[in-house]
Amino acid sequence: MVQDKRGITAEDFYRIRYASDPQLSPDGRKVVYVQSMVDENRAYQTHLFLQSLQDQTVTALTTGEVRDSYPRWSPDGSTICFVSKRSGKSQIWLIDVNGGEPRQLTRCRTGAGNPVWSPDGKRIAFSSTLAPDDSFADLETDEKKELPRKAIVVNRMMYKSDDAGFVYDTNKQIAVVEVETGEITPLTEGKYQHTVGTWSPDGEWLAITANRVDNTDLHLALDVYLVPVAGGEWKKLTNSAGTFSNPTWSVDGKKLAYIGNESPTRMIATQKSLWVTDLEKGTQTCITANWDVHVGDCTIGDVRSPGHPNPGGVWTEDGQGLYFIASERGNSGLYHTTLDGKITQVVGGARNIYGFSLNEQSHTVVLAVSDTRTAGDLYASNLSTGEEVRLTDVNHDLMEELALPEPIELEYQGEDGWKLHGWLLKPVCFQPGEKYPMVLQIHGGPHSMYGNTFFHEFQLLAAKGYAVLYTNPRGSLGYGDQFVQACCGDYGGNDYLDLMSAVKFACQTFDFIDTERLGVAGGSYGGFMTNWIIGQTNLFKAAVTDRSICNWLSFYGVSDIGYYFTEEEIQGNPFTNPEKLWQHSPIRHVAKMETPLLIMHGEQDHRCPIEQAEQLYIALQHQGKAPVSFIRFPGASHELSRSGDPEQRVLRLQYTGEWFDTYLHQTEKVVME
């Protein structure tokens, strides 16, 4: 351990902050951003900060016990709109860049979000979730008492969401609000989900995305539409054969870029690409068609909550190119492409760029960056010279205290010769000649990516004396389209062998790993794989499974994504080939599970519902072959470990460490009470 440094603790989570969603001012001289933290009451707070790029002066635009987010500059640079729950529901507020009290713009009873300024600065487009009898005119202060429902009629398959809970018959609709008067004009209606995009440069059209096919439950397309703001006929730019998002206009209004994939059969197991439609010619082109790299940030961490605003493709002023984020081999960087597909990396490195804002006139891009020792900070980079300046250091004091080992990059081969990639963290207390237990960590998705980003849980285990192995088995993003599809229909097959190859490689390469003290842990798909592994081998002496899957047959009907996820990923359903779902279900092997297992699950998890944990727990307890413990987190969704209740997140880390301490730091197994 470095002199006078200590290892990170679970409780250090309460001190970790991060910066996100940078937005450069129209003149490129200032940046507004969001800083997230946990307050002394162990509740989340998010505030807006304004920083000068000239003298680095920082001003707190908002303060207090509030959660403010999504700041966006008015075209003239005088005002910033943002989203806040300070009135109760999420609403759109305005604040002068010179300070002062914010002014509430919307008062919608169902809330408002995703604000986008019109080019003239007089209107803001936004979205709200409405039931059939709701209206944008319904005010948050209206006396409309919500009586408990005695019965609920369900008419759609997508009636619940891990993000939003039970949505039943509600739909996301778009409207435009006048900045001066607050008057609202609805733009969309009907039984469809709509997402705000961007205004055309002349302010006459709004580019949005929506699924407006006849059966939205069974046809999961997401199309790009142009909606005339003054009313009239919509223009559909895509053909309902894929999923598209983040439409952005070229400066001259002649082209529209968007991110997505086009495949009638693969909506999940696929890389995203960058597309452009020439609105004059009516042609659609996949700009990155010959580049086998995922467009967007797919890196998994456990400090920053998911869902950071994606700027999509950002046009150059001459309309001949775009800037965008892409993910490759554990890193996400900033790239530029010409319209004929010549791609260059603008900002790279061993790190995770999860947001950016660009001003071409000032040759400046502000980046939101994480790496293995940085939870989330902002950097400014000069597009001409490549010179980079760090703008924030929000965890300076905490990081000065901590010893954080750098991961060792690993390259190895799977059993069938596929090239594989991962990392290993040494224990903080590492001493040559000593032996240490090792924990294999498995990411969720499975179509996501471990990489060079900050991971509190990994550093915590390293601080407690463990080596930590984390890899990207087939099915992960970041290694090409064939790689990401390779696990479909083969869950527990070659993906399992890839992970076992990683363990074998690590144990053969690093003599400090104690092969008699190996653990395994994972969440979501990683939880599925943890369950699968302990049904195949007794190599691991302890396991921790989070928000996991054990039975694909029941998952099909209880998960918010179950019916379409199992068809694409497992390639089975209960009414044509139920044996396929059962074949890949870990609970099928429960009689062979002899590894001490800690099961943790959120009670409000709609993605992998808690019945999955309940099934596994009862089966293991009933047969009584090995210690098993079941911890339920009331009110927690599938996002427990990334954006859940702060105290529950810390408890989860503590339980994980305690379980491994019980079974891996001793030569004999001890039953944990």
Structure explained in plain terms:
It is built from eleven helices and 39 strands. The chain is of the alpha+beta class and 673 residues long. The protein folds into two domains: 105-398, 6 Propeller (Neuraminidase); 403-550 and 585-664, Rossmann fold. An eight-stranded mixed β-sheet has the order 32-33-35-34-36-37-38-39, with helices on both faces. Strands 23, 24, 25, 26 and 27 form a five-stranded antiparallel β-sheet that branches. The radius of gyration is 25 Å and the shape is globular. It starts with 17 loop residues before the first strand and ends in a 9-residue tail after the last helix.
Radius of gyration over all CA atoms, rounded: 25 Å
CATH hierarchy class name of the largest domain:
Mainly Beta
Strands ordered across the widest β-sheet: 32-33-35-34-36-37-38-39
- The CATH architecture designation of the largest domain is 6 Propeller
- Count of domain modules: 2
What is the CA-CA span between the terminal residues? 32 Å
> The CATH topology of the largest domain is what?
Neuraminidase
What layout of secondary structure does this protein have?
Blueprint: E1 18-24, E2 30-38, E3 44-52, E4 58-60, E5 68-73, E6 79-84, E7 91-96, E8 103-104, E9 113-117, E10 123-130, E11 160-161, E12 165-166, E13 171-178, E14 184-186, E15 193-199, E16 205-211, E17 223-228, E18 235-236, E19 242-249, E20 255-262, E21 273-278, E22 283-286, E23 294-295, E24 314-315, E25 321-328, E26 331-338, E27 343-347, E28 352-359, E29 364-371, E30 374-382, E31 388-390, H1 396-401, E32 408-413, E33 419-425, E34 436-442, H2 456-463, E35 467-471, H3 481-485, H4 494-509, E36 513-523, H5 525-534, E37 542-546, H6 552-558, H7 562-570, H8 578-583, E38 597-602, H9 611-623, E39 628-633, H10 640-643, H11 646-664
Parallel strand pairs: 34-35, 34-36, 36-37, 37-38, 38-39
Antiparallel strand pairs: 1-2, 2-3, 3-4, 5-6, 6-7, 7-8, 9-10, 10-13, 11-12, 13-14, 15-16, 16-17, 17-18, 19-20, 20-21, 21-22, 23-25, 24-25, 25-26, 26-27, 28-29, 29-30, 30-31, 32-33, 33-35
Helix pairs in contact: 6-7
